[in-house]
Design goal:
Length: 447
Amino acid sequence: MSLPDYIEVPPYATLLPSAPSPKATPKTEKKAPPTLQSTTVTSSFPPTSPTSESPPTSPTSGFSPGRSVFSNVPGVLLNSALQIPAGVQLPANPKGSVSLLSTRDPLSVPITTTNFRRFISKVGPVFWIQDRVEEIVFWRKGTKFTATFMVIYAFLCYYPRLLLLLPNAVLIATLAATYPSGDDRSPDGLAPPPKANAREGSAEWLANIQGIQNLMGAFADLYDAVFPYVPHLTHSTPYTPHILTFVLILTLATLPLLPLIPLRPFFLVIGLAPFALTHPLTIHALPHLIRASAPFLRRLRARIDRIVDDDKLDDTIWTAPLREVELFENERLGGDPPSWAKSNLKQGERVAWTRGRDGWSALNGGDVRSNLTFELDPGWAFVETEDWRADTEGGWSGVGADDHGWVYTNDVWLEPHVEQPDMGGVSKGATRRRRWTRRIYMTSKTV
């Protein structure tokens, strides 16, 4: 059934075939649904490649599950994800300018679907190379396999001019790896040609989709891991000037040392270091080393933060007497499901914020009116360029603290330890404390 001329079908919509007439007999020949002609782009997705072979159909269902489900994956994904709203100006190459690859063709669902299908059928060698590199770098095929490539890299570092022969070596290795055996040869002595494309619905085609799926997830995870540090490089945080100053000083200090750096040993160490870090023994021992060095790293970070704070002090505050005040944050494990919260504190015990290390506010030290706010003695004021900071060293507890500064205790706030208790042991009772500090300065000599 054709549609009237006054009905406009969006370019990303697909025309569904109409139901057969109830008067049709079993002998009536089914006609193909008409194709909707549009003045812009066709409304249906491009058909699958006519040269591809379809897998055998099921004798019970009458259709191929692999063909019907997986062969239309590109169309289904793009039909649901690529919704082009009307009136959106898409980037295009200006007239008279050089055509860029990213804007060579206009955004179109049929073009995207066609290119996606072509990409799926041809991307197999990329994932093959990715798997081989992963096997080498992460020692997946044993020590001998990875050590061989380490020796080759060391040989290239010693004779760097051999890099000019690298294309020849790759071609020779490819020809040797594809040399046909006696069983693979044809009567004329030639090997069968390799497959140009992966057939849609085949195991190779589905493996390529799986590789694309996992690669997209890995790229998204890597992006999410790197992006929190990007604002420091775009002048969006106060750390950007310090990073710029550090890099400039490091560059000026490194320039006189460049002629003294031996390049061959330098690139040898840089190239073999990833293999040492990805060795199974290193991966097994690295978490223990990081856990053992955590107190030192926390102290180092605290010293660096203090240096940065001192650099922000005004001259009037720098010359005035400085002191450090402290607050303690208290929480208890409870609730269903178990969670740490100040609302779980029992009535009559210490409150959520206290000033004394014994868990109670000092009698003559001012009352804690709210979290991180209390009155100071006359003549003292908080340093305006600093804020409250959690004490991640935990020197006050005698056992240290975790990465966030918490020190865990039992139900009566005794037996401090760094390890967080099991969430299932709420009945036994568990509490935790954290120390917050901030500097104050004397505003006048009158106290």
